[in-house]
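Quick log. Single chain, no ligands specified.
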Amino acid sequence: MGLWRDEVIQPALDRDLAQAIAEQQAILERDARNAGAHYALGTLCQFQGDRQAAIDYFRKAIEFDSSYAAPHVSLGRLRAIEGDYAAAWHHAREAERLGDRSLADQLSRYPATQP
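-> predicted structure:
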């Protein structure tokens, strides 16, 4: 399985990821304030393991569209992974206010995360 994954699967995934990043960057070249493209790039950076870049893109998405719940959910999940439950709950409440309860529901299942 190692050879198959290393020689076939991973290069294909890397190409797809690079293409998706290039597509979102092209959108930002035309419209630097496109919250959806910032959110998508944050998600793609997260896939690559670049947590700080993901956080930066999610923050930009929120800056450019304060009614966009998804970046709050993603930021909250990253903050929970880091153990910053106060920040995670902040983003959960913001997402909930915007109509997405998924992070609040998820965090509420873990009493240790309660603010």
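The first helix runs from residue 2 to 30.
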